[in-house]
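Friendly challenge for the regulars: who can give me the structure tokens for this chain first? No prize, just bragging rights.
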Amino acid sequence: MGQATPQTRTGAAALIEALSEAGVTTVYGVPGEETTSLMAALAKSDLDFVLCRHEQAAAFMAGVHGRLTGQPAACLATLGPGATNLVTGVADATLDFVPLVAITGQGALSRLGRESHQIIDLEALFAPITKQSRTLLDADAIPGAVAEAVRVATAEKPGAVHLCLPEDVASAQTSVPLHPVALPALPLANNATLALAADRLRAAERPVILVGAGALRAKAADQVRVFAEATGIAVVTSFMAKGILPADHPLTLFTVGQPEGDYVDMGLNAADLILSVGYDPIEYPVDHLTRDGVTPVVHLGQSPAPADAGWPLVAEVTGALPATLEGLRTRLRGQRWDMPGTFSAVREGMRRTLRRPQTETETGPIAPQDICAEITAQLRPRDTVLSGVGLHKLWVARHVSPKRAGQVIIPNGLAGMGLALPGAVAAARLQTEGRVLAICGDGDVLMNVQDMETAARLGLDLTVMVWEDGGYGLIDAHQEKAGADAPQFRFGTPDWGQLAEAFGWSHAPVSGVSDLAQVLKAAHDSAGPTLISVKVDYDAGGGLPRARKAA
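First reply, four minutes later:
Bragging rights claimed.
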């Protein structure tokens, strides 16, 4: 190679420059031999590199970064086991429609396609769990490939993309300039489809609005609320769209998605039309929402509903969602629906449930709804809450009441355990005010416990609350339903105080419901990371969340 000019740089440097040009600000990752050139380029760039302790945690951090900002972050791993460790977090981003750029190192081009140490086909590995997976075979192709990857990652529906960079391509020279990222504006909805949707709504007596995560991606939360208040139509949300309406709003029917029959299910069963707003069928099976395809659906979204989702569609409107809601509201001006009696009973049944304490003793294990009630009582609009996956997630989804849309992050597409703790690291890095609270089961938290070190090293203010029951509670609940001979899965838990001390965290044990409020408040007010451990009594809470009686 000749002497480098100011326009010439390595393929690795071109990749990092292209990420920065595309608006990526942060790379979460674990370095390796085959990413040496990338790490050198990162060190000279304006991108932040967050050193993680496991690649899965890095991918979860990048995914939560994308959820909170709407812009992709990158996660980085080396070849072989480093790349395979990324898979769960990358799949989580794709199934929850979160923009993310996964970057993996790879051996030299001469080693690909044949038996060689740590070599697997990474492009093929990531293809089923990303919107695009690509091996960069030529340094000159890197600027355009990165721009295209970011465009694909952020286009509706967003998701993960994967770029594999062989080490000799990373060190090769290129003078190809950066390529701008083309992000076309979403079109406005067609007037004819808007008119049809309005006609279908006018013909309904008991419509209900079902809001999904797509409404948050479209930044349409305010327009949903205005539309509901203008028409008087009650609102149900998915787990991921919690907070569209506050819990005390007269039109809220709360969240759908519990495995057992719940109050909101009674409301959906009574509806004669569902107005789906940004709802992704991956959030909850559509046949559970429509009485096995009986209830007709009008779909509003920034992309069409999947044709094979099973929606009994009678109208579909695609286009920029805030404008669609405004256009539909204009066409329905002057028309209002009264709250049906069943809907009112559903709302009041849930409100009584949220108010009702369940823990009978001042010390000892606490019913899950009482833990959630205290979390809600101390929740401020600027705070962020993340839930892990397990039985605790169902209680958080039902009983923690957000103060704003997007305040509570509940992974529900892939629904993989282990997101909440590393996700809290990403959220705390982004948070300029307020506190970050991760709620984990004792099985969930140990999936990525090693990144407690990352939080301590970065000096982040965050709280992780562990609900301790000594088992996989959700699995146990389903095993119990299967019959008396079904196996139960119990395990031991660490000494949480010693664990916290080992990682440089504060530990705050909860002895019972009598000191829960004080412990939680002290954790929120303290500097640095805090681990709260609380014993949970799911049996006192009724096992799985469910309606206690018909509304």
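Confidence is low (pLDDT under 50) at residues 1-5. The chain has three domains: 9-174, 191-346, 358-535. Your move, everyone else.
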